Description:
The protein has about 100 residues and is mainly alpha-helical. Helices cover about 35% and strands about 10% of the residues. It has two domains: about 1-30, no CATH class; about 35-95, Orthogonal Bundle (DNA polymerase, domain 1), CATH 1.10.150.
Amino acid sequence: MTRVKRLKVCEKGHKYYKSSECTSCPTCDKENKPKDGFLSKLSSPARNALVHSGIDTLDLLSKYTEKEILKIHGIGPASLPIMRSSLKEIGLSFKV
């Protein structure tokens, strides 16, 4: 089954096509990508999902279980090793 991609325009005027209701603009995502830190290592959907959920530091991330993080729309299992590694680098881990 092929999903129909619809033309969307973000508030900055960038045009892009998406088949989902996601309003994340790929051009804005590239412009807003952090240069360093754990968020810079994640994909745009995962990064946006965490930031939208108010999780923008490793200290905040460590207050959640992996299962809770995976329930956030936009976060997939491929992001977990990156998050685990980033937490471990500063002596933290996911909540058990």
